[in-house]
Structure formats: structure tokens, C-alpha cells
Amino acid sequence: MKCVLIIAIICIYHLRLTVAQFDKTSKQILNISFAASTDELASEKLPNVPNNYDKPIYLTDLFESLNRSSIYILELQHIRNVNVFKNATFEDFSTLTQLSIRKGKIKSFPETLFRGLNHLTRLIISQNELKSLTIDIFADLPELQYLDLSNNQLTHLPDEIFENLFELRFLILTCNKLSSLSRDTFIGLNGLEGLYLDQNNITSLSEGVFPSVAPGMILDLSFNNISSLHERTFSDMDNMAILRLSKTFSSTITNLPHNLFLNLTSLETIEMNDNYFKYLPDDIFHSVLELKRLNLAYNKLTLLNDAIFKKNIKLEELNLEGNQLQHLSKNVFSSLTSLTKLNLASNHLSALDPQIFSQLNALEEISTANNRVNMSGPREENSNLYNCPHVKSIYASNNTIPKIYQDWYVQNEVLIQLDLRYNPIPQTQFNINLKSEKGSILLTSNDLLLFNITHSQPTEVNGQTDFIYILDKNAACDADCACVVYPKYDENKMEIRCQRFDESELEEKLPDHLVKYFSSRYIELILTNCNLTTIHPLQRIFNQINVTKLSLSSNKLTSLDGLPELSKLEILEVHDNQLTNLDAKVLEVLKRSVNLTNITLHNNPWNCDCSLMNFKEFVTSHQNQIWNPNSISCHNQNDIPLLKLPDHKICHLFPLRFVIICTIVAIFGVVAAMTVYLYHEYKNEIKVWMFSHKFSKWLVTEKEIDRDKKYDAFISYSHQDEWFVFTQLIPNLENDDENQYKLCVHYRDWLVGVHIPTQIYRSVAESRRTIIILSPNFLTSYWARKEFQEAYVRAMADRCPRVIIIMLEDIGDRDKLDDELKAYISTNTYLAWGDPLFWKRLRFVLPHKHGASKPSNTDTLLP
Q1: What CATH number does the domain located at 471-646 have?
Q2: Of residues 694 and 393, more confidently modeled
Q3: Where are the alpha helices (DSSP H) in 403-505?
């Protein structure tokens, strides 16, 4: 790719102009960006640009030296001076197909600005300060297909402004200040495939305000304040496929006209979550025969009539989470034979009819979490899901379920996830297994009798050894449950975690007849706090299983003599022991372990003398494998890091010189210790101050592992706290002059139709940080807690501080929190809303970008 860079200073603005030619198409892209500084002076000047900068210079003056007929894409950014435009500015760009004018201070345009752009198909005028548009502004764009006017300050659209845009397919008016629409606003737009009016202040919709549209059309009216709605508002949109009405209506709208969706025979998705509906007409969805996805979550519905879904036999996903439903009749779902996903979580349900799900033969996922139901079926041993053979996920935590029903582990062969946390299940049997190879049962926070795995042998189902396992690793446990097994089916691994017993009890806790069941899997063996002084008792285990992780931390090991060559070993953890040296044979074993990628050796009393030189050589040459090698310190050398200690101080030949040097070091050590103490005591305040004043950016550089992540942060919050996210967090971070953080939020960045657990996983995985907006509302939100758990797991896996907690409100008694959240808060600091240094502290813990205040020459791309 050939690229020519030309820079010129115009008045007080810095103009960056880039012409890029692509060899394959011979098309050119012209990118022009203005900034409010003159940090970089021009090395070359545009021809024909006068040297007298006292007079206004128009873009047309700059364009005179260009071959305008060969430019197909033109991008203009950061224009602060509206005087650069005049009528027909782009008239000579006869081949232009895409024009972008973004991130500026433009409040208006000349009426014939776009004259001559007969082949323009894509026009983006976003992130400016447009307050109004003239009626003929788009009259000369006969081939325009995509028009983006988002993130401006438009309060009104002239009638018939889009009348001549016969080819327009997508119109984006997101994030403006529109309050009303007339019947003539969208005249002529009969081929629209997407109309986005979300995040405005629309208060009313009249009859026929929207035109007839193209098949598959999307209409987004989310986040408005509609208080008046005509029943024939959508009457002409018979081809519409997706209708988004999330948080669209004011609190005065508690019901909808029964004919609102009449004639919408192609509608497949309706999103009406986060409104104030208390009741819906019995026949409101009867004409929407193609409906596949319906979201009614977080309204105030107390009742659903038997006939409300009678005609929706194609419905696949139904979300009723967060309403006030107290009772559901036996037949309310009887017509939904295609339903695959049903969410009834967080209602006021105290009972469900034993036959209520009997017709849902296609059901794959159901959530009844946070109710008071027992999910019993017509027979005592079965649940009310007995006739749903395809269910893969059951989320039923925080209910009154008394036991694990037989149909979940006997009849059902595909069940993968069974979440029964926070139920009064008093006991179960060890040999209850899900038939699915990847099945797991979550039983945290039940009154379970915990089983000692040494007293029972695992049961094989379909050739697969399975376990019911306790995910709460902090659960109270007596001596008989010192070992717990955690299957990791996705990695074909088993984690055996044993702790709190003596070395002499190891054979009893992990007998041979049990170990042999694990021989076909890769094993992560965790033996912490077992008072081990040597690894010789582990030899019989090493001979029978393939160990990929060996954690022997927090024991009393004085040596690793006898460590065998474990060909599959990837992780070795021996920190927090009594190791003073490693034998040469042990070092040779470690060197030959080709799969070993992570070793922990810190917090041991290493004796740094001549006998330790081989160990130091090993640490020096394997720093990429050793976790924080600088934390390995010499116990006999005042805990100086081993790698910072010169060889002659470890193995010295002149004791007198050594004494003299030590004396000098001791003198300076006092000063250094005081300095280190003061820095350690106030290091956060020091770093925050230095970061906020743009000093020492090296303290907060971004890690290589995060450079390819799509977002800087994923914001996890309860919908009841969205006022804080929308009015404080997003404006202050996304419009940050220095970093301009890219945030991931549910309503804007989640993909329609994708399962929520998948959305959560993707959002956390693609973000450098996860910001938790902690409040009492967050603690009552099931999905918000799931988001924290996913972020917590990823942070633990990456060993990086990825979770940022903002304490929005006091959460009361912390002993009632989820164990993971309680543990995290107790061991990590959080940010408090209202702290005078809140924004500085927040920006400090967010990812930092070098050179954020100096824009690069290639930072402007088509959206």
C-alpha cells in the first residue's frame, strides 16, 4: 500500500491529511483531521495554499491541488471551525462514494453543501453539535444508502427532509434530542432496512408516523420517554422484523393498545423490557404470527392471561424476568411448542403447576431462579420438566427445591448445567450423575451432607466417570472431606484439591483404589496446607496419573529431592514452604520438563551462599517460566532479591571486604528502608498523583496480553443503576480527552439473539477490565452476579487485576454476599462514588494508553 503524508498549519488548527492508494482497486482514501494544537509543525505544505493565515481558508482551497476525481472515500474529523465549509464544497469529487464528518463542533451546514455527490452511498455526520438541518440538505444525494446523524443535538427534523432519498436503507438518529415526529418526517423512505431513534426524548407517536419498509427492517425506539401512543403507530410497517421498545415508555404507560401490533405479520422480535407495564391485553400478540423472540423482562406484570400466547406457536425465546408475577396458570405456555428458552427468574412465584411445562417439548434452557417454587411434577420423583427431554440448562437457584429430581439425571441425556444453589436440599447421594459428558450440578449454599470421596467409588455412566461437586471452595468442611474433586470437562482434566490434613494421612485420603479412576485424565493435584515435609509420599500417585499441575504451596517442604520427571507437568507451585536450596538433580528434572511453563518459588527462606549458584543460574535463565522471579529473596542476605545480588556477594572470597560492604549497605539500608516504607505506605496516592499530572507513564503501561482486546472496559450493573452509567460513567470515560476509553455496555454492544451467558463470556473476554457498579440493586440481579463471577474467574486465571469495583451505595451486611464477591472485597480495595479523587483513581486503574494525548496518523477509520 502506497501512502503519502502531507501536513499543513491552517490558522490555529493542525490539519492532518493522508492520501492512501490501494493497488488492487486503484481507489484512494483521503483522510483529513483537525486538532486544536500545533505541536507538530509542517514538514511539507500543500501547493497553492497561501502563506497569509490571517484570512479564512476553505476546504475547497485545500482540495484544488488534489486529483479529486480519483478519491472514493473522504474522512473529516475534529473540525472546530465551521467556516471551512461553503456551498458545493465537494462538487468536484465526482467519484466519491463515502463521506464522513465526525467528532467536530459543527452546528449547521450550508444548504447545498453536498451538491454534486451523485454517487455518494454512505454519509456519516456523527459526534458533532448539529442542532438543525435545512429541508434540502440531502436533496442532491440520489444514491445515498446509509445516513448516520447520531450523537448530535438535533431537536427537530423538517417535514419531507428525506423525500428524495429513494435508495436509503439505514437511517441512524441515535443520541439526539428529538422530542416528536410528524407523519411527513419519513416520507419517501419506503425501502428502509434500519431506522434507529434510540436515546432521544420522543414523547409521543401519532398514527402512521412510520412509512412502509423493506422486508427484515429494524426499528429501534429504545431509551425514549413516550407518554402518548396511537394504536396505529406501526400500521404501515407490515415488513418489519425487529422492534425494539426497551425503556421506551414513561411511567404513565402501564398498558398498550390491543391493536398496536396489528398487520405486523413479519415481526420476529419484540423487545419491551424495562418499562412499566402492569397488564397486557389478551390478544396483543395474536396477529404477530411469525414472532420468535419476545422480551418482557423488568416490567411490573402481575398476571398473564391464558390466551396471551395462544397464536404464537413459532415463539422460540420468552423472557419474563424481573416482573411481579405471582401465579401462572397451567395453560399459559401450552401453545408454545417451539419454545427453546424461557426465563421466569426474579418474580414473585410461589408455586408452578406440575403440568405447566408439559407441552414445551423443544425447551433447551429455563430459568426460575429467585422465586419460591419447588418445581415438583405430577409424580413425586419427577419435576415439572419431566416432559422436556431437550433441556440443556436449568437455572433454579434461590428457590424451595427439596431434592434433585430423577428426570434430571435419569431421563435427560443432554442436561449440561443444573444450578440448584441456595435451595433447602438436605442431602443427596454420591452416585447421582448427569448423563451428559459435560454435565455439572451446582449445589453451593445448600444444607448438604458433604461426602468423603475416599469412602465411595465414583460411578461410571456411559463410560464417563462423573461427580457431583461442590464449587464453593470456602465451604465449611470437617476432616472427612479433606479432598474434593472438581471435573474440568472442557479441558479433559480433573482437579483434586486436598488440604488441612497431615502428611501421614495422605494415603488414607487418596487411596490407590480411588487414584486409579483418574488414570485416563490429566490431573491438577492441589495439596496445600497438608504439612508435607517431603514429596516422597507422593511417588505412588505420580506413578499412576498424568499430573499437569502440582501445587504444594503452604506446606513445610525443606527440599524437592525425589521429584520425578513428569512429562505432562505444566505448572509447579512450591511457594510458601521452607526451601533453602534445590538439589542439582531437581534442577536437571525441571530443565528437562519441556511442558513446564509456570513455576512459583517465592516466600521461601533461600540460603544464598556458594551452594546456591546453580539455583541462581537456573532462575536467571528461566525467568520467563518463573512467576515474579524478583520475589525470590535471600533469607540470609536481608531478603534482598536473588537476581539483584551480585555473584561475589553470594559466593565471596574476601570476608573483610564483605563485612565492610555489608556495613555500608546497612547504613544506606536504613535510608532505603524508610524510603521504601514511605513509598509502600503511600504508593497508590503517589501513582495516582503522578498519573493525573502526566508524569511517569511507565508506571502504568498496558500489558502486551491486552493489546488486541476490543474494549477497555465492560460495565456490569443492575438496570436500576443505569442512571449512573448513562449520566456519569459513559460521558466521562468515552469523552475523556486523553484516553477516550471504549466501553462495552449491554444495551449497545450485545448481539441480538445470543444467549446471555455467551454474551457475558464474550464481553468479559474482549475487555481489559470489568467495572462492577456495586449497590443493593446489583446484589439482587442474577445476571449482574453472573457477570462478576465470570470477570472474577478470568482475573484469577490471568493473574491480573481485571475487576474494578465502584461502591455506588452502601451494601449493608457483607456477610450475606456471595462468597466470591465477599472474598474479593475483603482482599482488594474498591472505589467509592463521592470520593473527591474518584475520577483520578478510576482513570488510574483503567488501562492506560501511551501517547493518548497525541493522535497518530492512522487513528481514523470508517465506522
Answers
A1: 3.80.10.10
A2: 393
A3: 406
